[in-house]
Design a protein that fits this description.
The complex is a heterodimer of chains A (about 260) and B (about 400).
Chain A (H helix, E strand, L loop, with lengths): L2 H8 L4 E7 L8 H10 L4 E5 L10 H12 L4 H8 L10 E4 L2 H7 L1 H11 L3 E3 L5 H14 L3 E2 L2 E2 L5 H10 L4 E4 L13 H11 L7 E4 L5 H10 L2 E4 L1 H7 L5 H13 L3
Parallel strand pairs in A: 1-2, 1-9, 2-3, 3-4, 4-5, 6-7, 7-8, 8-9
Helix pairs in contact in A: 2-12
Chain B lengths: L8 E2 L2 E2 L8 H16 L1 H15 L5 E3 L1 H7 L2 E6 L9 H14 L4 E6 L3 H13 L2 E7 H6 L1 H9 L3 E5 L6 H14 L4 E3 L10 H9 L1 H14 L6 E5 L4 H7 L9 E9 L10 H4 L1 E5 L2 E5 L24 H8 L3 E7 H15 L5 H8 L11 E6 L7 H7 L3
Parallel strand pairs in B: 4-14, 5-6, 5-8, 6-7, 9-10, 9-14, 10-13
Antiparallel strand pairs in B: 1-2, 3-4, 11-12
Helix pairs in contact in B: 2-4, 4-5, 4-9, 5-7, 9-11, 10-11, 14-15
Classes of the chains: A alpha/beta (about 260), B alpha/beta (about 400).
C-alpha cells in the first residue's frame, strides 16, 4: 500500500505536512532536515524541487528556490541525496515541482527514480489535469506515484468532483486566492469555503495549504479537513538557522501544540 | 496548415500549463473570447477605436531610397504611426473591450521596455479602469520615461524584485497578482505567449496588420501577396500579426529577425530559435532558453522588447516545420540598421524594429522581389540607447 493511503487510513485528523525546498538552507541539508521534520512529529514531508520561475509561490519560497539553485541543487543531485533515505525516513514523501525541470530530466526516468528511492507522490502545480490524463497518468500509475491536484475557492463544484476522481492520496486545498505565504489570518469567507468543500463528502482526504503558519491556523484548518500543509512559515523559520534540528523541533511542536 | 487546435496547440507547441488557481480565469476566457469578439457590438466598438483612437489603417509606405539601397521593392508597414508609437496598442484595445464585456474591473499587465505597459495604461485611462503594471526593477531604472508615461496615464507601476528583475520576472509577478485576484481582474498579456487562448487571441488582435497589408498591396501593386514579409521576434506579437494572413500562403517567405545580442553563441543573446529547446515557459510549451536542468536562462539583447528567453508557441511551430526563416541579428548591426533607416527614409525606428531592417543584409532575395517589412515601432523610446551607442 502507498504510504500516503496508509497514513490517512490510520490518522484521520490533524495530519501535518511540512514543505521544504530541497537543498535548502544548504545543499547537504536535504536529508538532515527531512529527518528532523519526521522526528518533530510531522506526518508528511513535501520536498520542493527548486525552479527559477515558480509562479504559484510567493517571495519566501521563491527565495528558497533561488538559494537552493545557487547551492547547486538539481533533480540529479536530489536523487543522489535521496538514495537510501528510506533507511531513516518512514513517513510519506512527496515531491513538489514545476513541470519544466522534470520534462528536461525525462518524465519516465523521473518516475523510475522516484520509485527507486521511495518517493510516494507528486504535486505538480503547472501540470493541468487534462494533460495529466492524456500524457502521464499511465506512467505515474506504473511507478506507483500518487498525484495531488489543487482546488481553490474559485474551483467549481463540477471541477472539484473531477479533481476528486483523478487525485490519488489527498486533495490539496488552496486556502485562498493567493500564492504561497501571502496571508496571515483566515477570514470568514475562507471558513465558508472550507465548510462548503467539507460538506461535499469527497472520497479523498483534503489537506489545506497556503496561509497556514502556526498552531491557530493549523487547528482551524484541521477543523474542516484532515489537516494542513505549512511551507513559507517553516522556510522563514529555518532560513537563517544555525541549529537546524533544534529550530525545526521548536517550530513543528509549536504548530502541533493544542491550545 | 498553420492553425491552432482546440487545445491551444500549434503542432507540438502551446497548451495551457497553469496552476489550478488560474484554471477558472483561463477557462472563462477560452470559452468566451471568440464569441464576444465576433459579436456586432464588440466589432463596432473595436473598429471605431482602431480607426479614431489608434489611427488605423496605418500606411503601407513605399520606401524608395531603402529599396534602392538593397535592390528590391521594399514597403514599410507603418505600425510606428499607431497611437503610443508601436503595434502593441492593437492588442490592448482588443483586450480591454473584451475585459469590459467580461465584467472585469481591474487590469494588470507585465512590461519589459514599457511599450506594452504604456499601451495598457493608455487603454485603461480610455476606459476608466484600474491599472497595475508589473515591471522588473532593473527595467524601471533603464526605462524611466516609459515608467513616468504610465504614471501620468494613472497606472500603478509595481517593481518585480525577484530573480533577474526583468521581463520574465515581471511576467511571473503579473501571474501571481492574477492568482491573488482572479475574479475581478483581467490580465492583458502583451505578446503571443502565455497559456491558451492568449497566443491565438493576441495574434488575432494583431492580425489587422497583415489584413491591411493585403488590401493595401493589392491597391498599390495589383497583388495581395508580397514575396517576403520581415518582422522582428521577441515574444513575437508584431511578427504574428504581420504573418497571420500569410501563414498558409506558401509562396510568401516569412522572415523572423531574432536578437542575437553580442553574437548567437556569445552567452549574451536572445536567439531562441537557435539556443532554445522545447520546454514550458509562462504557461505554454515552446522553445525556451534553459539550462540542461530546465532552469530558465537570462537572455540578452540591446533592445528590451526582444530580451525574452522564449518565443510564442506559433513561432516555435513555424520554426519547427520550416515555414518561417529565422535570422539572428546582433546588437551592433541592429543599431547600424536603425541609423540607415533614419538617413534613407527619415524614420528613426525602435531598436526592436531595426533588427528586422538589418535582416535584409542576412537573407537572399531577387532584385524584383516585393518585400514588406513590419515597422513595428518608432525609436523615441530608444533615444537614450542610440545616444549611448553614439556611433552616428
Amino acid at each position: 500500500m502507498n504510504r500516503i493511503d496508509y497514513l490517512f487510513q490510520t490518522k484521520k485528523e490533524r495530519v501535518l505536512s511540512i514543505y521544504v525546498t530541497a537543498g535548502f538552507p544548504n545543499l547537504e541539508d536535504t536529508l538532515p532536515v527531512m529527518e528532523a521534520i519526521q522526528a518533530a512529529g510531522a506526518d508528511i514531508i513535501e520536498l520542493g524541487i527548486p525552479y527559477s520561475d515558480p509562479i504559484a509561490d510567493g517571495p519566501t519560497i521563491q527565495e528558497s528556490n533561488t538559494r537552493a539553485l545557487e547551492n547547486g541543487m538539481s533533480i540529479k543531485t536530489l536523487f543522489s541525496q535521496l538514495l537510501g533515505f528510506r533507511a531513516k525516513i518512514h513517513v510519506p514523501v512527496i515531491l513538489m515541482g514545476y513541470l519544466n525541470p522534470i520534462i528536461q530530466f525525462g518524465v519516465e526516468e523521473f518516475c523510475k527514480k522516484c520509485k527507486e528511492v521511495g518517493v510516494d507522490g507528486l504535486i505538480l502545480p503547472d501540470l493541468p489535469m487534462s494533460q495529466y490524463l492524456e500524457e502521464y497518468k499511465a506512467l505515474f500509475e506504473e511507478y506507483g506515484l500518487f498525484i495531488s491536484f489543487l482546488i481553490s475557492p474559485q474551483t467549481s463544484e463540477k471541477r472539484i468532483r473531477e479533481v476528486d476522481e483523478n487525485s490519488s492520496g489527498f486533495i490539496y486545498m488552496v486556502s485562498s486566492h493567493a500564492i504561497t505565504g501571502a496571508k496571515a489570518a483566515i477570514s470568514k469567507e475562507q471558513e465558508e469555503y472550507f465548510e462548503r468543500v467539507a460538506n461535499m463528502r469527497l472520497t479523498h482526504p483534503r489537506l489545506i495549504g497556503f496561509g497556514i503558519s502556526d498552531a491557530t491556523t493549523f487547528q482551524l484548518a484541521s477543523r474542516y479537513s484532515q489537516g494542513a500543509i505549512i511551507g513559507s512559515a517553516f522556510i522563514k523559520h529555518i532560513s537563517n538557522s544555525t541549529a537546524l534540528k533544534q529550530d525545526i523541533q521548536t517550530f513543528i511542536q509549536g504548530v502541533l501544540a493544542q491550545e | 496548415m498553420i492553425q491552432v487546435d482546440e487545445k491551444g496547440f500549434y503542432g507540438k507547441f502551446g497548451g495551457a500549463y497553469i496552476p489550478e488557481m488560474l484554471y477558472p480565469n483561463v477557462e472563462e476566457l477560452r470559452e468566451n473570447w471568440e464569441a464576444i469578439v465576433a459579436s456586432p457590438s464588440y466589432q463596432e466598438e473595436f473598429q471605431q477605436l482602431l480607426r479614431d483612437f489608434v489611427g488605423r489603417p496605418t500606411p503601407l509606405y513605399f520606401a524608395a531610397r531603402l529599396s534602392e539601397t538593397f535592390g528590391a521593392k521594399i514597403y514599410l508597414k507603418r505600425e510606428d504611426l499607431c497611437h503610443t508609437g508601436a503595434h502593441k496598442v492593437n492588442n490592448t484595445v482588443g483586450q480591454i473591450i473584451l475585459a469590459k464585456k467580461l465584467g472585469k474591473k481591474r487590469i494588470i499587465a507585465e512590461t519589459g521596455a514599457g511599450q506594452h505597459g504604456v499601451a495598457t495604461a493608455t487603454v485603461c485611462a480610455l476606459m476608466g479602469m484600474d491599472c497595475t503594471i508589473y515591471m522588473g526593477e532593473l527595467d524601471i531604472k533603464r526605462q524611466r520615461p516609459n515608467v513616468e508615461r504610465m504614471r501620468i496615464l494613472g497606472a500603478k507601476v509595481v517593481p518585480a524584485v525577484s530573480g533577474s528583475k526583468t521581463l520574465k520576472d515581471a511576467t511571473n509577478e503579473a501571474m501571481r497578482a492574477w492568482i491573488a485576484d482572479p475574479v475581478g481582474t483581467h490580465y492583458i498579456i502583451g505578446s503571443v505567449v502565455g497559456p491558451h487562448p492568449y497566443p491565438e487571441m493576441v495574434a488575432r488582435f494583431q492580425s489587422v496588420i497583415s489584413e491591411e497589408i493585403k488590401w493595401q498591396l493589392l491597391a498599390k501593386e495589383g497583388r495581395e501577396n508580397p514575396d517576403l514579409v520581415i518582422a522582428c521576434v521577441g515574444g513575437g506579437s508584431n511578427a504574428a500579426g504581420a504573418f497571420y494572413h500569410y501563414y498558409n500562403e506558401p509562396a510568401v517567405r516569412l522572415i523572423a529577425a531574432e536578437a542575437a545580442g553580442l553574437g548567437i553563441h556569445s552567452g549574451k543573446s536572445a536567439a531562441t530559435s537557435v539556443l532554445g529547446t522545447p520546454g514550458i515557459l509562462h504557461g505554454s510549451k515552446t522553445l525556451v532558453m534553459q539550462t540542461e536542468d530546465g532552469q530558465v536562462i537570462e537572455p540578452h539583447s540591446i533592445s528590451a522588447g526582444l530580451d525574452y528567453p522564449g518565443i510564442g508557441p506559433v513561432h516555435a511551430h513555424l520554426h519547427a516545420v520550416g515555414r518561417a526563416e529565422f535570422v539572428g541579428v546582433e546588437d551592433e548591426d541592429a543599431m547600424k540598421a536603425g541609423i540607415l533607416l533614419s538617413r534613407t527614409e527619415g524614420i528613426i525606428p525602435a531598436i526592436e524594429t531595426a533588427h528586422a531592417i538589418h535582416a535584409l543584409n542576412q537573407i537572399s532575395f531577387n532584385p524584383n522581389d516585393l518585400i514588406v517589412i513590419n515597422l513595428s515601432g518608432r525609436g523615441d523610446k530608444d533615444l537614450e540607447t542610440y545616444i549611448q551607442w553614439g556611433n552616428y
